[in-house]
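Example 9 (inverse folding). The structure is encoded as follows.
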């Protein structure tokens, strides 16, 4: 069984930075794409960023492009989301997820493709 745990959320002022971490265990981390999603109060869950198994391919939602950076350390079974220039509209619960397909050649942004999810970490950006 896959276990996914996010950490690093918190309260930050507009323009501030946070780094989220996500540790996954239970299956071979290095062969799966990893993704970050978020859900704001009253809104649907949305894609934020994803990274290929080797880290060579990344994709971002337009709303975070240029401000967020996804990375991974396969030796530590961990994926990160560095968030800079945070805005109040970034306030949400952030979820880490692991792709359901090993050795994927395309980085998928659809949540339905991901089958292992953490419980989320809350990010609040004050204005």
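The amino acid assigned to each position is listed next.
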């Amino acid at each position: 069984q896959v276990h996914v745990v996010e950490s690093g959320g918190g309260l930050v002022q507009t323009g501030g930075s946070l780094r989220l971490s996500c540790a996954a265990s239970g299956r071979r981390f290095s062969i799966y794409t990893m993704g970050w999603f978020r859900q704001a109060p009253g809104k649907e869950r949305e894609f934020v960023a994803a990274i290929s198994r080797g880290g060579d391919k990344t994709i971002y939602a337009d709303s975070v492009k240029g401000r967020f950076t996804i990375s991974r350390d396969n030796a530590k079974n961990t994926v990160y989301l560095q968030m800079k220039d945070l805005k109040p509209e970034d306030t949400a619960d952030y979820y880490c997820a692991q792709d359901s397909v090993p050795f994927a050649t395309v980085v998928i942004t659809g949540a339905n493709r991901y089958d292992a999810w953490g419980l989320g970490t809350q990010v609040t950006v004050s204005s």
